[in-house]
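User: Second chain of the day. Same drill as before.
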Amino acid sequence: MSESEGLKRLVRDKYGALAARDNEKDQGDCCCADAGCGTDMAPLVSGYEEQQGYNPDADLGLGCGLPVDLAGLHPGDTLIDLGAGAGNDCFIARAAVGESGRVIGIDMTPEMIAKARRNAEKSGFDNVEFRLGELENLPVEDNLADVVVSNCVFNLVPDKARAFRETWRVLKPGGHFSIADIVTLGELPHELQRVAELYTGCIAGAMDRDAYLQLIRAAGFKAVRVQRESRIAIPRELLMRHGIPAEIAGKLADQTTVMSITVTGEKR
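Assistant: Same format as last time:
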């Protein structure tokens, strides 16, 4: 098994187990869960409850921003959510695009897709669908979406460059994306990179901010800009739980700058 496939399996197993839980938000080391990452992003993430279309059954506390809030949606738009999880961002987007719009959620974890479909069925939505697939090879035709969103998922993708090219492919000319994700300022210390479990906590998969933005531009996007950003504190205790000695964990927590950013860009 390749390193890339091993990481994907790790993510599927972790998030499959989370999907099986009954809406527990204390998710351990999940990406930006309130008690998991211990971040100063909690007020931003908790803003979900104020969004029209918010579905508590679909909120597993896995996001690191509110990308739909900055997506500039209009009634009748077609939106694709990459890494849709249990569907929360999709349902918020559906409230904006209305009955004349269309929402497609993509996720590579079968258990998440099943949970999202159940949530959609309970809501009686016939213009929200969920498809099993990977961000590097989206099960969507070319030039379909007016808008693409994603919430703290590109971190978990081994080949981010290909995933951004796929995002470009599925957007219509004139379409745009709004992506919330985790980046670093500078290179991530080796001690964090080697802790595989942190990969599913949106830490070990983080790229340098400038390199991340360059990947997006290299995929062909224009007007790429960061609309929101906030520093995330890495708890020393979290690193110690993953076998990093206390002295090193303290230095990493102090020296590593991790940011939550929401980025937008256009396909022209």
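The first helix runs from residue 3 to 20.

User: Great, on to the next one.
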